[in-house]
Here is the input.
Amino acid sequence: MKIILVCSAGMSTSMLVNKMRKSAEERGLEASIDAVAESQLKNNLEGTDVVLIGPQVRFLEKKIRALVEPKGIQTDIIDQIAYGMMKGDVVLDQAIALKK
Amino acid sequence: MNSKFMQRFIEIAGRIGAQRHLVAIRDGFVAIMPLIIAGSIAVLINNFPPFGKKFDFVGWMNGIFGDGNWQLVGGTVWNGTFAVLGLLVAFSIAYNLAKSYEVDGLSAGLISIASYIMLVPVTEDWGLNFAWLGSQGLFVGIIVSIITTELFRLLMSKDKLVIKMPELVPEGVSKSFAALFPAMIILALVGLFQALMTALAGVNVFEVIFDVIQKPLQGIGDSLPAAMVVAFLNHLLWFFGLHGTNILGGVIEPIYLPLLEQNVDLWAGGMSAFDVPYIVTKPFFDTFVYMGGSGTTLALLIAIFIVVRNERKHPYREVAKLAAPAGLFNINEPVILGLPIVLNPVFLIPFIFGPVILTVISYVALSTGLVPRTVAMLPWTTPPIFSGYLVTGGSWRGVALQVVNLTISVLMYIPFIMAGVRAWNQQMKEDKAS
Here is the structure.
């Protein structure tokens, strides 16, 4: 499955992405997980299953929903505490639950 | 906290944060930041102060290559980057704005640059006036890029004006022809405007916009009240879990980047960093207030390690340990979202008002000449101490101010963390009892 995280500068989100990849690997889950800036999202939607929104840019939620939902892509804001604590497995669970 | 009010606040902040033109301006500045930093570092190297009497880099280089010769390299880098700030944003903002409308960004950027150059006053010996290509022309750059791109988008939507090529023609070629008529119309309009302004009114657009808009705004921006408002708003937004610097970027950058440019330019010309004119600049906040990120969270981390030194498993300590490595590089989402600071009444006061107090202290220190003013732009991830030394043009006084500010900030956070720990322990006891 393909998961995209949207944030602003991309620094902290890339830390989370690494943890999520590790967690996916441990579970033996085939997943492509990447972080992009909001302005780059449009160009990266091909084949994406889930778009997760960083809690610090939650104000973009409406805009992102309007962009991805018509394409059948699920989206939600990342749980704030899970993001802050860099809990890759919890955020991965969130993405998997969204896909279903 | 009233949740209706909160919803409303987040909604309004969101609307500002997602406003198309402000986003284009912000992303335009983000795009040119590598050039700005390269130019600034070139000047920094050219003017690097000696460490004591032993290590004098500038002196050595002058000894080898002759006075000032080697500095041509850095000076030239400066001329092509920070010194033409207005020209650079004329392209990058137009490009980003066009992209947001899903029209050809490259064409829009080129048209914007051409329009900008058309308006730049020419010198007597037929040269472009560098003064207006740089930060003094920044607002013209912003206005030109937005107006020409809006026109471009409008004209591109008129099917009759867009030349269609047969399918065999490569995309690059067909794109450039598609933009032909819109480009001709826009440039003719700009030319007409320029002719009218110079022939009839006898004024120069750059001077008018600089005097009427940019100068007053910068004057306000360089004042203590404005600096306090900026620090306050940024942290208020972060307290609600919103990316403050991101939302305010489109408004802050056009004001605080030119102020820095003028400082650096004068400093490169030999003026002391104590005497350059502007106090509040972009690195002023990054270096002296946002140490460890917004909220001076480096101080918060230190305060947590001091207060919670015995309970190894305490959640505050866990978050602080996790956040410390990134925190040194001013990345602090883990603390802000994980502790959390967001909507946590315990941290409301020190997180929002602490930075405002540091802004006042720093302003006073720079305005009284205790500490040199900012003359360099660094990547925002530069760790404190290094940043304090470098932005002041290599002065230990800059580091001293950072240490003072950090200490004050740690002292401000400590009582609130103690209260937070007490409340948390109380909660744990009650949970066990029930």
Summary: The mean pLDDT of chain B is 90.
